[in-house]
Amino acid sequence: MKLIPTALPGVVVIEPAVFGDDRGWFMESYNEPRFHARLAELGLPAPRPFVQDNHSVSAAWVLRGLHYQRAPHAQGKLVRVVKGSAFDVAIDIRRGSPTFGQWVGETLSAANHRQLWIPEGFAHGFVALEDDTHFLYKTTDVYAKDCEGCIVWSDPTIAIDWPIPAGVSPRLAPKDAAAPLLGDAVID
């Protein structure tokens, strides 16, 4: 497994070792000792244990996010796509951070096997790039409605460069469409 730092300290792209032959392929999608060791090599802390797995299926141009949870149920997320592809985004929402309000994005797909580690203190969202995209993520805390938060996907101060074709409107959940701007969101 190879960890690649991004422009946001703590957020890393994970490239697992994939072993293939004429029968197909094999990979470890998660190995806690290796993951923790690779994070330590980058000077990053190990996350709290993963306690919940989620699986969503989306049609092309469904956009989910930008979601986060506040303390005491803040979540770190280890995300991947097992069918289809998605453009995945993390936004630093840690007040006082030198990268507050900045984002990174990565295309995750069944073909590239890449994963993204998003620690606590970041909002997360993605847009499905094709129909029947299956998105899986492990979280370091359980879902807690009273701690959930959302930032509108199109916040101009964040200015995410979503790879959505001209003339296509993303499909949003009502709560995502009505989400506040980062400056108006309750993040603490």
Automatic annotation (TrEMBL):
Catalytic reaction annotation: dTDP-4-dehydro-6-deoxy-alpha-D-glucose = dTDP-4-dehydro-beta-L-rhamnose
Catalytic residues of the enzyme: 67, 137
Subunit structure: Homodimer.
Stated family: Belongs to the dTDP-4-dehydrorhamnose 3,5-epimerase family.
GO biological process, one term: polysaccharide biosynthetic process
Stated role: Catalyzes the epimerization of the C3' and C5'positions of dTDP-6-deoxy-D-xylo-4-hexulose, forming dTDP-6-deoxy-L-lyxo-4-hexulose.
Protein name: dTDP-4-dehydrorhamnose 3,5-epimerase
Gene3D superfamilies xrefs: Jelly Rolls
Taxonomic source organism: Aquincola agrisoli
Domain of life: Bacteria
GO MF annotation: an example: dTDP-4-dehydrorhamnose 3,5-epimerase activity
GO CC terms in record: cytosol
E.C. number: 5.1.3.13
InterPro entries cross-referenced by the UniProt entry: RmlC-like (IPR000888), RmlC-like_jellyroll (IPR014710), RmlC_Cupin_sf (IPR011051)
Gene name of this polypeptide: rfbC
Pathway: Carbohydrate biosynthesis; dTDP-L-rhamnose biosynthesis
Enzyme class: isomerase
